[in-house]
Amino acid sequence: MFLKPCTLLAIESSCDETSASVLKDGKILSNIIATQIIHEQYGGVVPELASREHQKNIVPVVDAAIKAAGIDLDSLDAVGFTRGPGLLGALLVGSSFAKSMAWAKKIPLIEVQHIQAHVLAHFIGEEKPSFPFLCLTVSGGHTQIVLVKDYLVMEILGETQDDAVGEAFDKTAKIMGLPYPGGALIDKYAKEGNPLRFGFPVVEMPLLNFSFSGIKTAFLNFLNNNQIKNSNFVQENLADICASVQHTLLQILIKKLKKAVKQTNIKQIAIAGGVSANSGLRSLLREEGEKNNWKVFIPALEYCTDNAAMIAITAYFKYQKEMFVSQNTSPLPRMEWE
Ligand code: KG4
Ligand code: ZN
Predict the structure, then answer these.
(1) Superfamily (CATH H level) for 7-120+306-320
(2) Residue 291 Cα to ligand 1 middle (Å)
(3) Ligand 1 pocket: which residues have CB below 6 Å?
(4) How large is the greatest C-alpha to C-alpha distance in the chain, in angstroms?
(5) Which of the ligands is closest to the CA of residue 167?
(6) pLDDT, tens digit, 9 for 90 and up, residues 184-213
(7) Of 30, 93, 245, 294, which has the most beta carbons under 10 Å away?
(8) Interatomic CA distance for residues 11 and 331, integer angstroms
(9) pLDDT 10s digits, 37-66
């Protein structure tokens, strides 16, 4: 397929990462990410603080992305931005910046759906999946099994009916007193622990859907019961607790993924989103891939959690089809697929 050459700037500001990326002819030249650590002390993202941090960060982050790419602003052909889903105030900062830049440079504006971008991050690297493939998209806000038919043609085969798996990681971490976001910390401590030491009840969901909200209640009860007997229960058993929680969550994901493979007979499997950075999930997917003869696609760590490079690659595919939007485009906190 012939792809039109172009140089794009992309902005991501849907949650607590301010990120800017420059792409030239399908190659990422820079991907600058400023993670907002201010939320750590509150145990979760505070929307108003996120907006203010984006406002502080957006100019220096874009500036750094342009400099790192070694391009001139006048060489930009279009600006891409995350339109949703995400926090309204946070999205407003990125979209307003993108619109101003597009207006000032008289270049087209391209809206991007954040979750679609997580999936398309697989087209940044050298090894790209071919169509169709399945993508398990696991982030702080979403848990979906997506059938990817083409760059911009995707179908959700199943998804969570309540919490996202990233939320389940973060909430169990918070219950243990770990700072936000706790997913990466559970991953770290789990490496030293016994995943089969503790068991947690799992709700069986129909079809390819998920449910994770019951886990946090079960986990809270489990900790309370054990802390009555031993007030140092968490400190003394941290690694085993983390390994067991992680094991429970990953088994739910893998079980549904296997069901999706059986149902579709598609054996190219990708993972995407913040939780795809989880080392347990990455190795489990590789193992299952070998066992079941799947071709697996695991994103580079830089492209798992929120980043503007994935927005840039999505904008690149939309640029090809001239899918441009007007200056009147406002953020959509609950944006769906097109
Ligand atoms: O994709 P992402 O950066 O933001 C959203 O779009 O939500 O995902 C953030 C989520 C958080 O819940 C975070 O705890 C989780 O990804 N996460 C991890 C790991 N790294 C990030 N969860 C488990 N293990 C990790 N290593
Ligand atoms: Zn995300």
Answers:
(1) ATPase, nucleotide binding domain (3.30.420.40)
(2) 27
(3) 15, 139-141, 166, 169-170, 181, 183-184, 187, 273-275, 277-278, 305-306
(4) 67
(5) 1
(6) 999 999 999 999 999 999 989 999 999 999
(7) 245
(8) 13
(9) 999 888 889 999 999 999 999 999 999 999
Which CATH number is correct for 130-299, 3.30.420.40, 1.10.645.10, 1.10.1740.10, 3.65.10.10?
3.30.420.40
Instruction: State both tokens at 267.
Output: 């054996």
- In which residue are the tokens 């016994």 written? 194
Give the number of whichever ligand sits closest to the CA of residue 141.
1
Distances (CA, A) of 195 to 56, 115, 161, 206, 288: 42, 30, 26, 26, 17
**Structure confidence by residue, pLDDT tens digits, 10-37:** 999 999 999 999 999 999 999 999 999 9
Output Rg (C-alpha) for the chain, integer angstroms: 20
CB 219 within 8 A of CB 131: no
